[in-house]
TrEMBL record:
Matches recorded under PROSITE patterns: YRDC (PS51163)
InterPro entries: DHBP_synth_RibB-like_a/b_dom, Sua5-like_dom, SUA5_domain
Organism: Streptomyces pacificus
Protein's name in the database: Threonylcarbamoyl-AMP synthase
TM stretches of this protein: none
Gene3D superfamilies to which the protein is assigned, alphabetical: DHBP synthase
Domain YrdC-like: 14-200
Length: 206
């Protein structure tokens, strides 16, 4: 049965954030809010968490997982960013964008796209998500909470708690989230390729 945490959207309670981070460190799977929509998150090295996300979302091995990072310095530990890409990504973060980039050796092999050896990364513009990643001390391995057969993510924490009570360990609720996932930009070929149009403005990458 999932624990339910009601977190203040502007001033998240430190004790609550610490408890959720401890759940993640114990290989737990949590639902948490972002600047686009709710997401599933687990610790980077959690095999069980990855398998559970794949099961909940019915994902195949070509799915790009996303590493949700605290800041640009942390992001740079997990992906290769050349000078031109650096400027473009830096200008768009924090924000509702996911960038697909070549992964460094810090990223577990099973998280990589099997052919491209890439991974998604993002820095959210959301107080609660930032507080959680800060407390955890490492990126959150994440995937949008979009259930199989549904067109839009769920927007209310209590509904998520009811629907996923027995398949996640915690639900972090700081108010309704949006229904539009991040805009996905693939930089793995050098030039920006818009893979998915979402919450982030694509004009700067057109």
């Amino acid at each position: 049965m999932a624990k339910y945490f009601d977190v203040h959207p502007d001033n998240p309670q430190r004790r609550t954030v610490s408890t959720v981070a401890d759940t993640l460190r114990s290989d737990g799977l949590v639902v948490y809010p972002t600047d686009s929509c709710f997401a599933l998150g687990c610790r980077l090295g959690s095999r069980d968490g990855i398998d559970r996300i794949r099961s909940i979302r019915n994902l195949d091995d070509r799915h790009h997982f996303t590493l949700v990072c605290r800041d640009f310095a942390q992001l740079g530990q997990f992906v290769h960013v050349d000078k031109d890409v650096f400027r473009a990504v830096k200008a768009a973060t924090p924000g509702s964008y996911t960038f697909i980039l070549p992964a460094t050796r810090e990223v577990p092999r099973r998280l990589l796209h099997p052919r491209k050896k890439t991974v998604g990364v993002r820095i959210p513009d959301h107080v609660v998500a930032q507080a959680l990643v800060e407390e955890l001390g490492e990126p959150l391995l994440s995937s949008t909470l979009l259930l199989p057969g549904e067109d839009e993510p769920m927007t209310q924490g209590w509904e998520i708690k009811e629907r996923l009570d027995h398949v996640v360990d915690a639900v972090v609720d700081s108010g309704d989230c949006g229904t539009e996932p991040t805009t996905v930009i693939d930089f793995s070929g050098g030039e920006p390729e818009i893979v998915r149009r979402g919450a982030g403005d694509t004009a700067r990458f057109a």
